[in-house]
Structures are given as structure tokens and as C-alpha cells.
Amino acid sequence: MKVVVVGGTGTIGSGVAKQLAKEKDVEWVHLTSRSLDKAKEAAKKIGNKVSGVELDIFKKDQLAKVVKKADVVVNCSGPYHKVAIPVISTIVEQGVNYIDIMDDPDAMIKVLDDSKFHKKAKDAGVTVIVGLGSTPGLSDILGKYGATKLEKVDRIDVTWAFTSVSGTGAGGALSEHLLHVMDRGWTYKDGKWVETKPLVDGKDTQDFLQLGRLDVYDIGHPEPIMLPRHVKGVKAVTCKTGMIPSEMIQTYRTLTELGLLGLTPVDIKGTSITPREFMLKQLPTVPMETFVKLFKLDEIEPIFELRVAVDGEKEGEEASFIYNFVDVSHEEATVVPTALGALWLGRGQVKIKGLLPPEGCIDSERFLKEVVENGVVIYESYKGKRELFKP
Q: How many CB atoms sit inside 10 A of residue 109's CB?
């Protein structure tokens, strides 16, 4: 098996490459970066199977040349509302299987609603899996799995919550993604997709394993776009977020309400710039001492939690299955599903061709079994009893 990891020098990309390089049937892994030196340095840290390759993903001919001999391409380079469609199009033209960790709802809507993407992949005889990381990805597969344990599914609620310390250290693409999903969101209600205001609409209070009881709000993430297409009969799907300290939510909410995350250009002395572009340039210049004071970085432990609740009926009664993952960050819960998805594609374990979210083409029970075997600790709660998840 030959694999190209686009954006392979980042935390997730290099983690996926490391996971893949352990497998005997993986012949080589190419890590890509705009900087050849950076790519080679990252590859050297992983091992002999891995090599660094220079790549600007916006140069179609260069991308096509890099991926044409691969069996699978793993795209860990965002933000996806900018890169997903051109990269997917080029990969499919080369007849190569593809997987990404797409976490932008706008891009997800475009690729799932436009049947030409599915048809082109199917005609090319390849599988394109969009959004197989932690959230979305693991969250969707847990939602689909929980739904199979019910006779009737009413709703699926996905929530990711984190402390300020767990959320630090984001790179430029991730920072842009966060500003993007806090500007516009979606939820699924009564068989319809409804636009929401992130961090304002959908307030709920939920219980978490380590973060305790927490107020959460709608966030602009793809799960409500993805899950209703492949969970029969579900009436509502939400994706929410919570943050500690609560000042984080208020800060982002204020930025949104002031229009500082928007994409409508503003003319400033003859120069056109969007408010979001300004924020992306301004935030890195803020002294770390300011963030420490504002978000209590010196007082809080790093915690990230993923919670997926599936509600419906079982044996004629109301029932709910709740799944929890908790760690200092979401890195492991992203790397493991992404790497496994790539291996499944390379080994021919995904039989469906075309462009689909993971819950539309992956056996949830088998996949979750391998996720757990690879070290991701998940808890399942049913009727008030919580146990380690063992599918």
C-alpha cells in the first residue's frame, strides 16, 4: 500500500503517517509540505518508510504528479472550505482513493449536495470519505452505531467541549477553521436543515465525565449535515460546544455579534480586507500574557471531551445511549480513525464507491472495535450505567 499524507508535517498529519508506517502492508508514506526541508525533517523523525515531498496543493499539476502512484491520499490540510473541493477533484481525476478530516460545514454541504462529486468518484472506481477525524468522524460513527441499537431513532446530539489550555497551540489553518465555525452554523430539526447562530442558539446543559455540568451552544460543525443522510428516521441532529472558562464563549460571541468573523470585504483606504482576515492577522500579535489572564491558562488543566447521545426507543420504551471520549486533546481520537480509514481503503475493506461521509460506507461496529483496539478509550452509558465501550 502506498499513501500520500497531504499536510503531513502538522500534528495530525504526522501522527497519521506514524500510525500507517507501523503496518507491514504499507510500502511507503509520502508527507507533503510547501517546505521541502520541513517535510524531510518530519519524515526523518518517523522512519525509513516515510519520505518528505514538496507540494503546494493549489498547484493542480503538482498535486496530480505527487499522488498519481498512491493507493490512498489522506488530506490533513485545511481550512477545508478553501481546499476540499479543488483537492478532491484532482485526486478523483487521478483515480486514487481519498480520505480527509473535513470539519467545515459549508464545504461538507457542497460536496454532499452536489451529486457530480459522488458520480465522478463512482465512475472513477474510487472511494472518497469526507470527514473522518474525531469530530466529525468518530462522532458520526458512534452516532450511527448507537442508532443501530435502537428500534427507533429520534435524535443524535454531538457535543465537543474543552478547556482553554486544551485549545491552545492552534496553527493558522485551525485558527481560521475555529473562526469559520463560530460565524455560521446548522442544525437538523423535523427533517429540515436550519441555519443557526453559533454560541447563541441551542443552549443546553449537559453532563461530562471530567468537565462536569456545562452550558453548551450550537456550533457550525458538519455532523448535522452528515448524519441525517445515513441514519434512517432520525428527526433531529445537533452539534454543540462548551468551553471552560465561560469567558471564552462570551469573547467569541462578541466577536461574531460585532461582525468581526465575517467574510464581507471592507474597504480601508483603498485596500479591501474581510473582518476575518484582519482577526487572523491580529490575534497572533496579542501578547500571550493577555490570553493567560483572560482565559485563565495558568489555572486550568487541559481537557477535551467528545459526547455523543443517541435517543429513541428500545423494546417499546424511551432509551438513550451516550458515548464519551476524554483526553488532554482530540489528537489521538483524530489520528486513529483517520489512519484506520486510510488502511481500510488501501486494503479494499470499503466496498462502496463514490463520495460519502464515513457513516455512509463504513461498518460502524467493526470500525469502532479497531478504534478501541488502537488505544482510544470510549465509555458507553445506558440506563444510568457507564462502562468501557467494547463493541
A: 16
Q: Indicate the domain borders of the chain.
A: 2-133+331-360, 138-327
Residues 336 and 372 sit within 8 Å (Cβ to Cβ) = no
Tell whether the torsion through CA atoms of 198, 201, 202 and 204 is positive or negative: positive
How far apart, in whole angstroms, are the C-alpha atoms of residue 297 and residue 291?
Answer: 7
CA atoms of 200 and 250, how far apart (whole Å): 9
Average pLDDT in the chain:
92
Q: How far apart are CA 210 and CA 13, in angstroms?
A: 28
Cα 315 to Cα 148, 153, 263, 312, distances in angstroms: 13, 12, 49, 10
HSE (side-chain half, CA atoms, 13 Å) at 221 = 26
> Quick one: the chain helix, strand, coil %, rounded to 5?
40, 30, 35
From first CA to last CA, the distance across the chain in angstroms is 28
Nearest to 306 by CA among 141, 149, 91: 141
Which triple of cell numbers denotes residue 264? 464581507
CA 252 to chain centre: 20
Report the chain's C-alpha Rg in angstroms. Answer: 20
Q: How many CB atoms lie within 10 A of CB 214?
A: 20
Q: How far is CA 346 from the centre of its chain?
A: 21
CATH of domain 2-133+331-360: 3.40.50.720
Grid cell, residue 22, equals 507501523
| Cell triple for 174 | 485551525
pTM (whole model) above 0.70? yes
> Can you identify the CATH homologous superfamily of domain 138-327?
Dihydrodipicolinate Reductase; domain 2 (3.30.360.10)
The set of residues, in sequence order, having a beta carbon less than 8 Å from that of 45 and lying 6+ positions away, is 14
Residue 229 is classified by DSSP as G
CA distance 321 to 156: 10
The model's pLDDT over 87-138, given as tens digits with 9 standing for 90+, comes to 999 999 999 999 999 999 989 999 999 999 999 999 999 999 999 999 999 9
Measured CA to CA, the distance from residue 210 to residue 319 in angstroms comes to 24
Question: For 260-309, how does the pLDDT look when each residue is reduced to its tens digit (9 = 90+)?
Answer: 888 888 998 889 998 888 888 888 888 888 888 888 888 889 999 999 99
Contact by Cβ (8 Å): 188, 105? no
